[in-house]
Amino acid sequence: MAFDLDERLDEGRRVGFFTDTSICIGCKACEVACKEWNHVPDDGLNFTGWSYDNTVKLSADTWRHVAFVEQRKPLGHQEPGVGDLDFRWLMASDVCKHCTHAACLDVCPTGSLFRTEFGTVVVQEDVCNGCGYCVPACPFGVIGKRETSGTAAKCTMCYDRLGAGEEPACAKTCPTDSIQFGDLDELRERAERRLEQVRAAGAASARLYGHDPDDGVGGTGAFFLLLDEPEVYGLPPDPVVTTRDLPSMWRQAGVAAVALLAGLAATAWRRKR
Amino acid sequence: MKHKVLEYLPFVGIVLAICTASWVAGRMPAEGRAFAAGLGRTAGPRRRTISR
Amino acid sequence: MVPKADFDSYYGRPVLNEPTWRAADIAGYLFLGGLAGASSTLAAAAELTGRPRLARAAKVGALGALGGSLYALIHDLGRPERFVNMLRVFKVTSPMSVGTWILTAYGPHAGAAAATGVTGLFPGLGRAATVGAGVVGPAVATYTAALICDTAVPVWHEAYREMPFLFAGSAAASAGGLGLLAAPLSEAGPARRAALAGAAVEVAAAARMERRLGPLAEPLKRSGLLRLGEALSLAGALAGATVGRRSRVAAMAAGAALLAGSACTRFGIFQAGMESANDPKHTVQPQRRRLARARAERDLT
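Output (C-alpha cells, whole complex):
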C-alpha cells in the first residue's frame, strides 16, 4: 500500500535495469528489440528534427525511447585529435522505472496493474478497462492508453522472458551494455563504482538517477547514470508518487463533504410556514 | 471543429433533459403524486363510469 | 524552435503524458456528479422540512444527473464493456475505486427516492431512500476532487487542499440552481440559500487556490472558463436571492445561470490541469524549487 512509505520490497529478489547513458551509442537496438519481442504496434514514422530522435517519448506503443541531446559542452577529458572540441552528444535509453511506490499501480481501479514476483509492475491487458487513470498518475510520463485496444500498456520488463530465466530483450540486445539487467542490489553497487570511474574521467556532472530508496517514489527498479540534469533528458528532477498525499486528500474531501451536508441542511433549517 | 462540437452534444442534451424532468417534477401538485392523488383527482367517479 | 527558458527541458516536450480523459465526459462528470450529490442532500433537507415540490424536483434532478454521470464514465472507458471490472476490487489508494463503490451505494438510494417521490408509492421506503441518498450525496460530490488531485498533473495535485471545497461549493451552487429553476417560489428558499452559500465558497476556494499555488496558478489565472463560471455563479446566486424571490421567470433565469456557472468552473479546472500537464515548466520548476528548499534545510542543520 502506498500509505506505508516505509514499506520495502524484498530487495533480494528484486530485479531491475541499470542504464549507463555514458556508453549509450544511440543505436536504438533496444527500441527495435522491444517492439519485436513484445509485438508493440507501430506509432507512426515522423520527422521531428530533434537530433536523431524521431521516437519522441514513451507511450503505450513505445516502451524504450532513446533520447538524443546535442550540447555545446566538453565531454570529460576528450581527445578527439581535432583540437579543442566543446561538443557532446548525450544519448539515453529511457524506460518504465518500475517504481517501489508505483502511482499507476496504486490508482488502478480494476487491479489490472499488479506487482510481480520480480518486483516489477505489469498491466494485465485482459483485466484493464481503459479508464486511463494510470496515465496522469505516472510522474514520469511512461504509461499510455493504446488506441487500438483501448487498454493501458507499458514496459513489462519482459515478464515472459524473466519467467523463463532470460534477461529482457532490450538488455540482451544492447551492444555496449549500456542497458544492464540484474538483481537490483547488485546493480546499485555496480552503478556506484561506475559513477566514481566516470567522474574520475572528468565528467563532473555525472550522477545517478532513481537509485535512492529514499526519493519520492522509494527508488526505481530501472535507474540511470546521467551526464546532466534529469530534465535535460525529459525526466522529472524530483518525482513523487502522487498517493503520498492521498491521506491528506481524503481528509480534505471528508471535511468538505461534512461541510456540504451541514451547509445544505442549514439552508432548510427554518421549517416552511 | 465540427467534430469537437459533436463531442459536447450528449453532455448538453443530458443537462437539458435533467432540467426539463426536474421542472416537470416541480410542477406536479404538492400533495399529489402522479398515481396516488393525480389519478384520483382527474379520474373521478364520473370518468370511471362507463356510460353508453 | 523552443524559446529559451530559465529551465531545461527535452525540446520543450512535456514530462508527463497527457491525460486521456475527454473533457465532455470527465469534466462533464465532475459537474453531473456534484449536481447529483448535492441535489440529493437538498432533496432530503426539503422533504424533512415540508417542501415536497422542491424535494421532488431535486430527487428527479439527482437521478437524471446520476444517469448522465454513469453514461459519461462508461463512455470514457477504452473498453466500456469491462466497466464491471471495477467491482473486482476495493482499493483505498484509488479514488476511482472508492468512487465506484460510493456510486454503487448511492445509485439505488437516489433511484428509489426519485421513483417513490414521483409515483407516491411506498412512502416509508421513499423517506428512507431520500435520507440515505442525502447522506451519501456529499461524498459523491466531493470524492471527485480527490480523483483528479491524486494524479501527477501539477495544478490538480498541488491544489488538493482547496479542490474539495471548490467542488463542494460548486455542487451546492448547481443544486441550488436546479431548485430555483424547478421549484415553486414558495418552496425555493433552501435552493436560494444553497446557491448563495455555494457560489461564495466556490469563489473563495478558487481565490485561495490561485494565491497558494504561486507561479503554478498561471493556467488557472489565464482561464476564461473559470472567470466566466465565477461570474455566472455569483450573478445567478445574487439574482436568485433578490428578484428571484418574487418572479418565477427571474428565478428560472438565475437557476440556469448557476447551472452554467458550475459547469464552466468544472470545465475550467479540467482545462487548466490539461495545460499544466502539457507544459514541462509546470512539472520541472516546482520540483526544482522543492529540491532547492530541501538542500537549504540540509545546509542549515
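Chain C has eleven helices and no strands.
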